[in-house]
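[job 4471] stage=fold_predict status=RUNNING
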Amino acid sequence: MLNVRTIAFIGGGNMAEAIINGLQLDASGIDICVAEISAERRSQIAQRFPGVQIVEDAAEAAGKGDIVILAVKPQQAAGVLDQLERAITPDKLVISIMAGIPSAKIELNLATGCRVVRAMPNTPALIGAGATAVSCGHKATAADLDVALQLFSLTGSAISVDEKQMDAVTALSGSGPGYVFTFIEALADAGVKCGLPRDVAAQLATQTVLGAARMVAETGEHPAVLKERVTSPGGTTIAGLHALEIGCFRGTIMNGVEAACNRSRELAGK
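[job 4471] inference complete, writing structure tokens
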């Protein structure tokens, strides 16, 4: 269980909601405060989490938290950090889930000695199936990293990486659900094209992706080995795989992840 008394969220979007949900399911007894500028969103959070304190002012929320989680869009980083400059003191742990914003940039805008941990979760965290990578800033300690890993483990799995790898993490797992959703949609469309009713095709496509992912995770075997087991000589699977290779399926996926990685670097001004 997390040994933390209070957590403040700056921003009350989907990721903040996922973490709050994980904390409440954990029955940790942590006091939570959320700063959110949207009145509509404040109302939604209040309805879902009656015990959570909700305010409009970011500095007010930050002053209440032992941990301050920056959960705003990266384009809002400069304005939010200006608001928090005096509210965040070195005794607080700052965890940023702002894509592409390096810890050094956050540290530069806060009091000297502030401890910053970066994290990149993804949207399946909303159902407790997220994948989050965590990295330490210059002042963050091993204990800070452990706290962040515990926190994000409440929303799925969490791993530690070097900060220089965070743009790649953002491109792969942060943006990855978008690629998978598109693949499921395309798989279902293909079923319809081949004669299946839409609802049947969607159900089969979704369960096929879910089942295949579970096999990789639970067997620990390389995807290539599992692929070989469903690829009979002269069969239907190899015919389909051949068509995918002609269409540069794997190369296209790699290009997509690389493009997302480059965009993450652009957001960071690298």
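[job 4471] summary: The first helix runs from residue 14 to 25.
[job 4471] exit 0
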